[in-house]
Amino acid sequence: MSAILQILFDALSLGSLYALGALGIALIFGVMRLVNFAHGDVIAFSIFALLWPSVDVVARVGAGNLPWFLLIPFVLAVGAGLSVLAELTVFRRFRNASPATMMIASFALGFVIRYFLLMLYSSRPKSISLLPALSQPVEILGARIPLLQVITILATVAILFGLTSFLRRTRFGLEMRAAAENFTMARMLGVRANRVIMGAFALSGALAAAIGLILGSQTGTADIQMGANVMLMAFIATVIGGLGSLPGAVIAGFLLGAASVVMQVTLPIDARPFRDAFVYGAVIAILIVRPQGLLSGRGTKERV
Amino acid sequence: MSLLALSDVTIRYGRLTAVRNVALTLAEGEVLFITGPNGAGKSSLLRAIAGVTPPAGGRIDFADHDITGRAPEDIARLGLSMVPEGRDVFASLTIEENLMVGAGMHVKESNWRARVTNALEEVYETFPILRDRRHAQAGLLSGGQQQMLVIGRALMTNPRLVAIDEPSLGLAPNITDQVYERLIALQGQRKLTLLIVEQSSTRAMMVGGRMILMRGGEVLIDGDARAMGQSEAMQAAYFGYGEH
Amino acid sequence: MAKRTSIAGRTIATPLILSALLLAFALLAVMVGSKPFNQTIIDIFLRVILVVGLYVFVGNSGVISFGHIGFTCLGAYAAAWLTMPPMMKQTLLPGLPDWLIALQLPYWAGAILAALWAALWAGIFGKVLMRLSGIAASIATFAMLAMINTIYSNWEDVTGATSSVVGIPILRSIWPFLIAAILAVFIAWGHAISRTGLALRAARDEPTAASASGIDLPRERLIAFIVSGAIMGMGGALFAHSIGVVTPDTFYLGLTFITLSMLVVGGMGSLSGAVLGVLILSSLIQALRWLEAGVSIGTSTFAIPNGVQEIALGIVMVAILAFRSAGIMGNRELGWPKARPVAPATTGQQQPELNKGVSK
């Protein structure tokens, strides 16, 4: 029983990360058909923002010393700010470019962000003790679950809930959903393109920062590579969820997390190191069966 | 003073010229049909007016503003509401949400709800079927209902001019009749200016108003729809179809 | 057939000019005669092979592939298996079958077999993946890359997992790399003007018309996938021989993105663009490296800080794409002066498949 509970929490907390990442990618894809490869680097940047201005190996100065109720908004604002800056300086020039061009531009931008961090902090991971109180385990129905896992899941649920009601209940959210579905039509109804795209970038950046916070607290380190892995899985989740579909991205993110964790436990010992290969194989299988994604939400028409 | 004026408008897609030196004016309150065969450039013209494909040459004025090359949202905000071909409903949004997208775009956040509620009431009055299904996903509606939805959605923006591309496309004749009936009634009530693109001129002749016949990217005839029905020029133009 | 030779005649200028360009780089290396510079030029030729290989599929089909470096990985390890001294294989890769451990081929035979090995897997993966199109296909190729990487990073006995496989014979001469790069250019050209290459580009530019005229798209794509897989495999083998060490992560995201970037910056739909993209970005990288190492101007040494090289590279890439979103060459090819510069690529507007539905 407690073993199953442990697996469940593992799956949910891993899935949370993927879901948040997928959501960040899907938000931007929805409004401008950009597959944003810089997303992973925004994640890394947000967490490194805590270290600034120190570049020491064991660093906890600057923003890292803030109490949590200031720290969290600060990091989210950094992510959102960087993301909006990326839109203003780079992506705005690519509105009419082909998705391939935009994708490569986003990669190039990610490259710039990554090496900027590298230049400041070198490639060695920095240890940070972010919210150390969270690393203690708690007992839930006889299983010892790290408190951080519980908080990760709760935070994700809260974020999803907040985002959903933002998209459903506010005028801006409505405009965003309409724009994600048919951008030109939305503009013909007076929805302002720049505002909506900027909003999508801000939200996406804040989501990236949230992932950065979770990863930073989980691993106790700030690593330039930390965004990359989550981003890849998130990217895949976005596609199998049905590109542009926000609920699809979330569901697929949790699904991928669950698949990874379940395969980790059920695969024979010899095959375990190859777990991810099986996950990727499953991704290909899903795409073959449903190329438009699991929840394309737009009927049978393939959008891309 | 005309509400909409095009002068010397040319539209190109790559090397292909879709519309060539078209000039036309539309007065406030007028109903104008643009008809003509496939590939005549009707939809291209509409897309240029709405700001979706900027013209390669010429000038478009709407409500005392030069809107040539302006963004679609700016043009919409001046009061030109476009209903594109194929009834582009936001399929995953509910009917009510679809209607709300462009509603009260000039209104401040705080007054928005109230304003939207009023506008919704008016649209529901005109299209009761939309009220009945207000919380259904728009993608689930039938073709005729979707057509009513997009017209209703255009009205929600409180427009001065509504431009509609092929409202009868894919609809059964009796449904088309209904759509037109509402449209013309609305035009009377709200003093709307209507710009309607249809492939066939029969509807224009039934409804009446002014009609333009386009072919090969140019305006062939401009005149009263009913009078044109009898004219020889009209028939010659239609008989010319088979040539290419 | 007559038509075919005329296409070849009209377009042969492109591979010839590109080969001459590559030869010029090789001669430059000979003239400079420094070891590091020699290595730099070898690296450039390797990237030419990989980017041209990528072009064969991506350029002609319009489908972005993230997976091709997987074939490079397959080729590199195949070369390691085939050319390392048996003694070293015995200790480093004991899981290999005995006959393979005993085998030691010359590098060129190893490279040919590596190309075939990569082509075989391209055929197997392609059979499944080519049914997809657009972004689903791109993601599937990506999953393929990740799958290959995961397997090679964990199969201790056969690939040495994540640790480096050393002892691969190192080639110091520039010529094998030059010949392979020119070979890749000619294969790409030959494919582009073949019936299947033309059909594939027709389908890229006019999807509806192409399917109406009976083009079997999955089949044409599969052929391009296999041909490009073979080139990537060959490139992988030579890559292994250029540094003498392979690890799975050498052939993963970093290389995938740098090669894709070079292709897109050069012009995705153009063979000339593929080659020029490599030459231009590589020259830029090299110039920045020199600056990083420090340049003496008069009495003072001027050096840019570490990391600026990559940052500048990224900014230049963004700038090139912002001004020429179809890449430096767009869809055009290099030709003789005055001749109409429409070689392998068709004249149609380049429309990668991902683009569909974007501007509706």
From TrEMBL, chain A:
CDD domains: TM_PBP1_LivH_like. One of its GO terms (biological process) is amino acid transport. Signal peptide: none annotated. InterPro entries: ABC_transp_permease, BCAA_transport_permease. Pfam families: BPD_transp_2 (PF02653). Keywords: Amino-acid transport, Cell membrane, Membrane, Transmembrane, Transmembrane helix, Transport. The chain crosses the membrane at residues 12-35, 42-62, 68-88, 100-121, 141-167, 196-218, 230-256, 277-295. GO terms for molecular function: transmembrane transporter activity. The keyword Membrane applies. It is a multi-pass membrane protein. GO terms for cellular component: plasma membrane. It comes from the Bacteria. This is Branched-chain amino acid transport system permease protein. It comes from Albidovulum denitrificans.
Automatic annotation (TrEMBL), chain B:
Keywords: Amino-acid transport, ATP-binding, Nucleotide-binding, Transport. One of its GO terms (molecular function) is branched-chain amino acid transmembrane transporter activity. GO terms for biological process: L-amino acid transport. It comes from Albidovulum denitrificans. Belongs to the ABC transporter superfamily. Pfam families: ABC_tran. This is Branched-chain amino acid transport system ATP-binding protein. It comes from the Bacteria. Residues 4-241 form the ABC transporter domain.
TrEMBL record, chain C:
It comes from the Bacteria. It comes from Albidovulum denitrificans. GO terms for cellular component: plasma membrane. It holds the Pfam family BPD_transp_2. The keyword Glycoprotein does not apply. GO terms for molecular function: branched-chain amino acid transmembrane transporter activity. It is a multi-pass membrane protein. This is Branched-chain amino acid transport system permease protein. The keyword Cell membrane applies.
